[in-house]
Amino acid sequence: MSQSNNRKNRDTTAAIYPRLSRDDGTEGDSNSIDTQKKLLTKIAKEKGYTNILTFVDDGVTGVTFNRPGFNAMMEELKKGYIGAVFVKDLSRLGRNHLEAGKLTEEYFPDNDIRLVAVSDGYDSAEGEDDLIPIRHLFNEWYARDISRKQRIRYKVKGNAGEPLSAPPYGYMKDPDNPKFWIVDRDAAEVVKRIFELTMNGMGTCQIATLLTDERILSPHHHQKSNGVNCPARVTDRVPHYWTSTTVNNVLDKQEYCGDVINFKTFTKSYKNKKRQVNAPENVMIFKDVHEPIIDRITWEVVSEKRSKNVRKRKTDKGETSIFSGFLVCADCGKNMHHHFNQKNHDIKYFNCSGNNLHHGVCDSTHYIRVDFLEQVVLQEIRRLTRYARDFEKDFADIIMGDSQQNSEARHDKKKRDLAAMKARDKELDRVFNQMYEDNLSGKIDDERFSRMSSQYTLEQKELQAKIKTLSAELDNVHTSAMTADMFISTVRKYTRAKKLNERMLTELIERIEVHQSEKTDGIHRQKLTIHYNFIGAIDIPKELSLPEIQMQTRKGVIVSYEPQRLIEVPA
């Protein structure tokens, strides 16, 4: 385009920029995108602009200047054929007084761009306005005030146990009460399957590939098919494409146990919208609020399993061991590594990763054959199931401990104290709500509102710290009883187990400590300490005979199993 034509078109070309976000309060239709468009188009035409380009940002805060519609408008302005910009008022341009000031005082004048802010009565073609910098400052203060009030509102909602985030995949909002979640049955079945496959030893990449091959809708597209609007990423463009990240996101969510978890993330200020991970002590957890999809013990076992993050070494046939990630050296605490004999690949074994010729931290190999290990662990699980069956009360007492009866009085007092604290916390929430409404209606001025909210915020913060501590103490008692019942129930599933599998190990065992074998009377005695999930290592009574396992593992080497006793038992 020639310069003369560019100049001619520039005089008749204007950009209109409607913007709306939550920063703008509850102004209703008077501030809607459609209303702004009509108003700005009308004014632009009255001022002689016949070619009107529209750039819109709907639902984007004015605090940031990184907005899609605004960026597109600036790109067109740089091309030089737009002569004017029309906005409803200067706050539409932005609520950051430094950035807005650079536009109105530097960029627009330097590039001969006319700016019209209709409601503010400002037109740069009519000369400078000394009040413009003050208007920019007030626009930013407004955004800061709105942000402060929103934070208080979210705090009140979050502390009351109302979910602050959208329901995760597997749940949906209750049509009768959006504050609560109900189970999305189709998605919940996929969630259950993901946890099931993980318990059976399948990795996240394998699960993602399986779900992709079976053309299961990804969480994003499932939500979209149900009319839920959620932001898309590049990978979300393919409806049935799952990634290991997507699977990990499912496995991470404690909400599937029926819990509501608030304040997991936060923003540092009203200008910085990037979400930061909150410290654990600031996260609020409300248990058993909605229907669970995954039972709590399964979620905890899976979480523990994933926290180990052990890479499973494969044999020449592509096989891995079900014991990978479970075995640790009893002396140095390092993981045991899976190997196979170079001359005979059928012989598979583990040894200590801390034992190395050059940089070793462990003096012994702690060598143990996989076939020997399979026999030992299977027999010990059978002993455990017999113990749980034949001595159920004793077994439960070991899990829970025998101090529960002695602490009943203290427990009851803690419950009463906790109830009183929660009542006061709820009362403070009500006070916050009333103060917020009084401030909006003008009954309480901003200065008094700020002073009173600071006072009550400090009280509530101290109160909530006490509630969290006391709740944790009470939960430990509850969890102990719950864990006993759950673990006994899990143990019963394997009463007649004939063969080990990874699911069995995952559900029952946390880790197995392998001790260096000791030679006595020509026989190497191999000791193991099995730590079970939630209960740790236990000594099984003598009434249940020890497994008699003996195996020739190498030429001239006979290994016998002997459990490592936790306490010295008199002969």
CATH-derived topology of the largest domain = Hect, E3 ligase catalytic domain fold
Integer tally of domains: 4
CATH architectural category of the largest domain: Alpha-Beta Complex
Overall pLDDT level: 80
Portion of residues within helices: 40-55%
Level-1 CATH class name of the largest domain = Alpha Beta
**Radius of gyration (Å):** 33 Å
Largest sheet: 6 strands, mixed
Alpha carbon gap, first and last residue: 103 Å
Structural classification: alpha/beta
Q: What order do the helices and strands come in, and which of them pair?
A:
Layout: H1 3-12, E1 13-16, E2 19-20, H2 33-46, E3 51-54, E4 57-58, H3 68-78, E5 84-87, H4 90-93, H5 97-110, E6 114-117, E7 122-123, H6 132-159, E8 171-174, E9 177-183, H7 185-199, H8 204-213, H9 219-225, H10 244-252, E10 260-262, E11 265-266, E12 276-277, E13 284-286, H11 296-308, E14 327-329, E15 336-340, E16 348-352, E17 368-369, H12 370-390, H13 392-400, H14 408-441, H15 446-492, H16 502-508, E18 509-514, E19 518-520, E20 523-532, E21 550-554, E22 557-563
Parallel strand pairs: 1-3, 1-5, 2-4, 5-6, 14-18, 20-22
Antiparallel strand pairs: 6-7, 8-9, 10-13, 11-12, 15-16, 16-17, 18-20, 19-20, 21-22
Overview of the structural elements:
By secondary structure, this protein is of the alpha/beta class. It has helices spanning 3-12, 33-46, 68-78, 90-93, 97-110, 132-159, 185-199, 204-213, 219-225, 244-252, 296-308, 370-390, 392-400, 408-441, 446-492, 502-508, and strands at residues 13-16, 19-20, 51-54, 57-58, 84-87, 114-117, 122-123, 171-174, 177-183, 260-262, 265-266, 276-277, 284-286, 327-329, 336-340, 348-352, 368-369, 509-514, 518-520, 523-532, 550-554, 557-563. It folds into four domains: 3-145, Rossmann fold; 160-306, Hect, E3 ligase catalytic domain fold, CATH 3.90.1750; 327-388 and 497-563, no CATH class; 398-492. The protein contains 16 helices and 22 strands. The model is unreliable at 26-30, 402-407 and 567-571 (pLDDT under 50).
